[in-house]
Design a protein that fits this description.
With 358 residues, this protein is mostly beta strands. It contains two helices and 28 strands. Its EC number is 5.1.3.3.
Length: 358
């Protein structure tokens, strides 16, 4: 073995030890970024968004994401409220894949499949607060995480960051995920899981909110919610939101509710994703992203969940629009690739623009 290779192995071993020690001793905190009457709170546990406050058409400030009052509740959460997702968001069929001739068996956490990175995905780790500017013209926080080779079965060491920032005026939230594969090719598909109810987290269900999704195709699922590999048109189906529809207008035609990946139409780097409008509050949310897909989920399995202020969340009390690479892309060559090779940087940007319609 050459001296250069030996030195590299020693450096990686030291990095592993330092990262492990750092995570064990890292404090969990809550961090606010604020600009006027717009504020977002984040915890470094799971790099999770725990609140988003902004006014409605009457000037009343309200929190528009579901969540909990304590960090302990986030630790016990099984719904991924507000959490960052990785190393691979969404599902991997059979919790396995083959890459460059090597078969990788991952940690299954949903039957035989992997969901959102496994038992200890990025939503269940303590991230490092690398930079934090609470106030000013561009408040932001950057969180970083070192994912070791073999974590949840994935190959290679990966450095990951997510930056939450308030941009421009009046109400823009930017979320930027970055990752670098250090020594092996590996799948990376980072996303996050805010449960949006722009009428207010405690305002009831979202079925009357109006939704437009800029996608004319979906990736159909098998009985285990794994993509079949098809990319099918939404025309003449309840999945068609190319024209604005109320979320609940056709939800009864789908078992439990919506939970599927849409293939976004635009070829632009920053793509239009979706627009949500709540008539009662007047709030509008416009989403753009660089990812090729978006998972539309209507909180189907949030049942009797005690949330902020003791409010009890029920099915359809929120909607999720998780921008992402296609689910199970590692096992479908016709899907956009999620493989990142050493020397390449993974980038996924999301921009939420909120406005008020009076």
């Amino acid at each position: 073995m050459s001296s250069k290779i030996s030195l590299l192995l020693i450096c990686l071993f030291i990095l592993h030890l330092c990262a492990a020690a750092s995570v064990r001793g890292r404090k969990i905190g809550i961090y606010e970024i604020k600009k006027g009457d717009f504020s977002v709170k984040i915890t470094n546990y799971g790099a999770s968004i725990i609140s988003v406050f902004l006014p409605d058409k009457n000037g009343k400030i309200g929190d528009i994401v579901l969540g909990y009052d304590t960090i302990k509740e986030y630790k016990n959460d099984t719904s991924y409220f507000g959490a960052a997702l990785g190393r691979v968001a969404n599902r991997i069929g059979g919790a396995q894949f083959t890459l460059n001739g090597t078969h990788y068996k991952l940690v299954a956490n949903e039957g035989v499949n992997m969901l959102h990175g496994g038992l200890k995905g990025f939503s269940k780790v303590v991230w490092k607060v690398s930079k934090y500017v609470r106030h000013g013209p561009s408040p932001y926080i950057t969180l970083t995480y070192y994912s070791a080779d073999g974590e949840e079965g994935f190959p290679g060491d990966v450095l990951v960051s997510v930056t939450y920032a308030l941009k421009d005026n009046p109400y823009k939230l930017s979320v930027v995920f970055k990752a670098r594969a250090l020594n092996k090719a590996t799948p990376i598909n980072l996303s996050h899981h805010p449960y949006w109810n722009i009428g207010g987290h405690n305002s009831g269900d979202v079925l009357s909110q109006v939704l437009k999704i800029y996608a004319s195709h979906i990736t159909p699922l098998d009985e285990q919610h794994i993509p079949t590999g098809e990319i099918s048109p939404v025309k003449n189906t309840p999945y068609d939101f190319l024209k604005p529809h109320k979320v609940g207008s056709r939800i009864d035609k789908i078992q439990n509710g919506y939970d599927i990946n849409y293939a976004l139409d635009s070829n632009k780097k920053m793509k239009p994703v979706a627009i949500v409008y709540d008539k009662k509050s007047g709030r509008v949310m416009n989403i753009q992203a660089t990812a090729p897909g978006v998972q539309f989920y209507t909180a189907n399995f949030v049942i009797n969940t005690k949330g902020k202020g003791g409010y009890v969340y029920q099915p359809h009390s929120a909607l999720c629009l998780e921008t992402q690479g296609f689910p199970d892309a590692v096992n479908h060559p016709n899907f956009p690739s999620t493989i990142v090779t050493p020397g390449k940087t993974y980038l996924h940007s999301v921009l939420y623009t909120f406005s008020i319609k009076k």
